[in-house]
Amino acid sequence: MINDPYNVILLVAVVWPLLLALPSLHSRISWPCHLALIPALALAVYPSIVSLPLPKLFLGTRLAVNGEVRWILVMCVAIWFVVATVIHSTPNDSTYHFQTSYFLLALTGNLGAILATELIGFFCFSTLMSYSFYGLLIYGSDKKIKSSGRLYIIFLVLADVLLLEALLLAASTTNNLDYPSVRQIMAEAIYSQFYFWLVIIGFSLKAGIWPVHQWLLGSFKSGHQSAVLLLGGVPVAIGLLGALRWLPIGEHSFYATGMVVVVTGVAAIFYALWKLITYTSLKMLPAWVTVAATGVFIVVLGIGSMHPAIWRRNEYLMHPFIATLGIFLVALILSLNRWQGTHQEPDFDLQRVNVFFLWAEKGFHLAQQWTRERFFILQSYWNVDEKYQDIMDWAKPTVFIGKWSTSITFFVFLGLVLAWLAA
Amino acid sequence: MNWNAWIPLLVVASSMLPGLIIFNLAEHRIRLRTALNLIGALVKLLLVGWMLWGVYNEHIFETRLALLPNLDIVLRAGPWSLFFVTLSTVLWLITTIYAIGYLEGSPHRSRFFGFFSVCVSATVGVALSGNLITFLLFYELLTLSTYPLVVHRGTEVARRAGQVYLNYTIFGGALLLLGTVWLYTLAGTLEFTPQGFLQTLDEAHHPALIAIFVLLVSGLGVKAALVPFHGWLPQAMVAPAPVSALLHAVAVVKAGVFGIVRVVYDIYGVDFASDLGVTDPLAWLAAITIIYGSLRALYQDDLKRMLAFSTVSQASYITLGVAIASPIATIGGAVHLLHQGLMKITLFFCAGNLAETLGIHMVSEMNGVGRRMPWTMAAFTIGAFGMIGVPPIAGFVSKWYLGLGALEIGKEWVVIVLAGSSLLNAAYFLPILHRVWFQEPTHPWPEERSFGNQETAWALLIPPILTALMALGAGVFATGSFSPLVWAQLIAQREFHQP
Questions:
Q1: Would you state the pLDDT for residue A412?
Q2: Of B224, B294, B230, B232, nearest to B260 (Cα)?
Q3: Does the structure show a pLDDT above 70 at A202?
Q4: A–B CB contacts, 8 A cutoff, strictly below
Q5: How far is A5 from chain B (nearest CA, A)?
Q6: Nearest C-alpha of chain A: how many angstroms from B286?
């Protein structure tokens, strides 16, 4: 029931950019991307809680804004405003109308996912956002980003399949798919461990969390400028938000699971820090900062899984964390772009790499080689990977760890853990 | 006999009579032919609308004509049959508009539209059948009326495809006839009954009942394109695009699947079929077909052939929903009957537009075609995403209920099959979408025809846009008052006494 006229703005915030996405409409309007943000901005500054049930939409959904959501909404409006300005500054670009359509579709999905208060709505909107973002990511770009885009779409499809399975598990356990209800019910369900892993792996793939972060690196490296600015605030933020909303944390202790998550998160932080120290390309700085920050997020989720009481005391910090991360990344990228415009980026210096790291990598490579000889799945993958030769090239040991093979090894390991837990 | 008793017969006649008149029209009588086609389709739509309202309010629509002692021709409207009839009627109207545009200027249009109308009459007859003998009669009429449509172009390839189609379907029809006769000798009736009519038979007849089930499902499985009876479907894609659309989305494949639904629910009864142990093998066969069809689609360059293998896969979702034998899966299977029709007809219309406008037949020729034909390819994109099961398009709703139904009765493997099928669907549809929207166009197009400022003729453009919007609407407003999902829930409630 619409008991407050202001609640209608919730619907307008989502429908308005969707309408504007039609090329025949936005091509007739000045500043369409900025205009699309107005209802969302109105919601972000409105001081009280607004909520709108939509029982006829997406098998029944509800949109709402409360204090926590407002953090993310503010970040979302700020980031999309910056990107809208970037897109608007290049209207002569031949890709302008396509970019605008993808921008507005992704914005619709982004806003809907933020405002949705239950799992199906979140899933529907985040899917719209993710596929539209693909268009924004690779449109008119070179082969490198298309290759990275391909990786993004593969990860996205895998993530959607895993999350659909999780969604089905939740729906078969409870009729009420509101976040608090799902958290409570799924914490006690028979499938709780399995559900937990489906969700964490699904959203890790979507958000580019280590060790499944490869699409994120490629996107930062050669993505379209507008897409790079959106990376932190859109796919990454929504991935983290999804994990936060879907995971049954804070009800019961998942000690062993939490421990694995913490270890993964710590590894992600160290890995990212190591790359930050040894990899000097400034363009990749935001990428590694993102990997480190999402690692921190994962560590907190893991601790929360192990100790529900600690989680309940500190949970309120998570939304501001995501919002701050998104805005910080945009600020960082803009600053770096500005700095790079006036300074020459130094070349990568192999001599700066610590000898210890070289030996560590060599050891890791030998371990991988041993694994490769014993597991045909990895063997077959490596055989088709043309970049495999790079791994054998010891003259460039530091590029080795960043290769996809490392990620797939860890991914398969996580898959094995998941299968073990399911069994 | 009251007025309502004539309605099912009128629904069949509303396309049969125009069809018979159209056969005798000269080629140049374009306006009269078009008027007869459209009037027939609109009258059918009105009658079906009336029956929908009536059945929802528990009115009875039944036509019964004596054929032999104890054996009548029965046409009856129930929730299940009306679901299928509505699909056929709505999509027939849209396909007729499309076919008028598609065949403009080509020869033998009277023959084409004549058989086209008879084909739809047969489909509606199959849907409204109140017993197995009526079903069988219309089922065979469907075979005979679609053969001339498959070979319409008259080329050697078309004739060969028609021959394959005829061989398969006549073989299937023979199996079905054998099963029907055997069943009649055993049970003494062929009347479709909610919860079935075979439970009361002695246990000594169970082996015979299993054998009859195998005969019936094998016979129906040919049209339903269940593996290994699917070989005719990819061959039949040489037919004109409206015929392919009709075969895949409205008539032939659906008639086969609908027959399986009738056998499981209205002859055996889902519980009895489950007790006999025939539903599990059927579910496995459907699962194998789902994966096999998707795998074969993955390696096709011919767009229509790829879509044909996709149909092999997708049609079996309905069979799977039936064979899972769970109330919620029944909703999933039932609603997919309509959803798959909407999505697949969209894809075939788009494939037809590409062929007619630019001469594109192969996936490898589709680079950048989204810029040349944005509306057609936007419709194609919606259809493709729906097939993958991307929310909120209709295909997602079907998969959702199938998955929930499987979990409801502890058949988790079905969820894995659904996930695998989604991945495979993504693997063959997403690369096409990437080509269409993000790759540079290949110039010149194989055979480009000019339509002025439009991307193609209106008659070709409007149908796919309409069906794509319907597929999208069926998903977004799935819980709306007039959605297919609500009707599928009514089917579960009324015909199978499920909550």
A1: 55
A2: B224
A3: yes
A4: 63
A5: 23
A6: 20
Mean pLDDT of B114-134: 92
Residue B480, in any domain of the structure? yes
Best CA proximity match to B331, nearest among B382, B421, B261, B418: B261
Number of domains comprising chain B: 1
**Cα–Cα distance between B87 and B81 in angstroms, integer?**
10
User: Contact at 8 Å (CB) between B372 and B462?
Assistant: no
**Contacting residues of B for A169, CB less than 8 Å apart:** 407
Whether residues B391 and A123 touch (CB distance < 8 A) is answered with: yes
Q: What is the domain range of residue B476?
A: 325-499
Chain A closest-CA separation from residue B241 CA (Å): 28
Inter-CA distances, B300 with A273, B245, B247, B417, B434, Å: 46, 18, 19, 21, 16
Instruction: Answer for the pair B355, B242: CB distance below 8 angstroms, yes or no.
Output: no
The answer to whether the CB atoms of B479 and A55 lie below 8 A apart is yes
Asked if B397 and A59 come within 8 Å (Cβ–Cβ), the reply is yes
| Nearest CA-CA distance, residue A102 and chain B, Å | 12
Round to whole Å and give the CA distance between A206 and A125: 14
Tally the C-alpha atoms within 13 A of residue A397's C-alpha that lie toward its C-beta.
19
Is B437's CB within 8 Å of A153's CB? no
Q: Which residue has the tokens 């969209």?
A: B346
pTM here is 0.86
Nearest to B423 among A150, A161, A172 (CB): A161
The reply to whether B382 falls in a domain is yes
CA distance B78 to B68: 24
Chain A residue with the nearest C-alpha to that of B477: A57
Structural domain includes residue B485: yes
Cα torsion B244, B248, B253, B257 to 10°: value is -170
Max CA distance (Å), chain B: 71
Q: Pick from A32, A37, A36, A67: which is nearest to A49 by CA? A: A67
Minimal Cβ distance to A165: which of B391, B415, B430: B415
How far apart CA B348 and CA A162 sit, in angstroms, is 30
Share of chain B above pLDDT 70, in %: 99
Overall size of chain A counted in residues: 423
Chain A neighbors of B392, CB-CB under 8 A: 58, 124
Kindly compute the dihedral angle of the four CA atoms of residues A151, A154, A159, A162, in this order, to the nearest 10 degrees.
Answer: -140
Q: Using the beta-carbon criterion (under 8 Å), do A57 and B403 form an inter-chain contact?
A: no
Across the interface, whether the CB atoms of A135 and B392 are under 8 A apart is answered no
Mind listing the pLDDT tens digit for each residue in B217-234?
999 999 998 988 888 888
Report if residue B223 sits inside a domain.
no
- Kindly report whether the peptide bond that precedes residue B327 is cis, defined as omega within 30 degrees of 0: no
Residues in B closer than 8 angstroms to A56, CB to CB, are 477, 479-481
Contacting residues for B350 by C-beta, under 8 A, at least 6 apart: B376, B377, B379, B380, B383, B464
Distance, in Å, from the CA atom of B439 to the CA atom of B243, rounded to the nearest integer, reads: 31
